[in-house]
């Protein structure tokens, strides 16, 4: 029928039964010269989503879909449900590293492959703790880790640890900036940390030849009036977020600017969802992070199967 259904059930369903899916797929385009060759493709329009308002259902979870415009429709994006996601992530190792935003992304990933009750328990536990989390999904042989690394410089140390061991996850999602804004308030230091992180991501080749798919989970839209402390209201402002976000672009760490990381644009997704999607002006409803995970998985499918631009 559509391209991704074919990919999932012909390529993946057969192949991963005997070998790990991620051991044979390719990485995003190399940072070397990527900026000059960057062009419109399905990856570039993955964020073309719309939320569906349900005014008749107060308190319901907001639903969403990809736009049905011609370019987006040609890309045939697929919203993966648990069976498909489990097939795709069979025998994989996925790491989320960063702050509480990245942790919410990890929980959305966990929700795709685990029973809801376990996800609820984990969410409550991690909400109270600033700590790492690791789990193994026995049914599909998947390892899922969250690394509490709220500052950009700590992400660099983690990448250097992976490099030292020459063993990398299949997917790494990272993101930091809010703690740098809140507790350090030095955009120049943040810029230095990002450039060090970019350097640490060069030449990631494991002993078994795997190269990870790399993503950057951006900061959300900040609703100052809803922030829960004076320090947050003073330091976590939209103008400052824009300044820090510009540092991410200037560091050329993102794929769009020649770097190794593909951006998961939480700012755009949260802004589109609106102020009603956040209670504290900082952390958004699950749907925002669910979409980010779906965008990530579709990006992996697109790049792994070398689907050409439309």
Automatic annotation (TrEMBL):
Task: Say yes or no: keyword Membrane present.
Answer: yes
Any single biological process term in GO: xylan biosynthetic process
Q: What is the protein named? A: Uncharacterized protein
Q: Name a GO CC annotation attached to this entry.
A: membrane
Cell compartments where the protein resides: Membrane
* Ranges that cross the membrane: none
Organism encoding this protein: Fraxinus pennsylvanica
Protein origin, superkingdom: Eukaryota
Renumbered to this chain, the signal peptide range is 1-18
Ranked from the top, the taxonomy reads:
Eukaryota, Viridiplantae, Streptophyta, Embryophyta, Tracheophyta
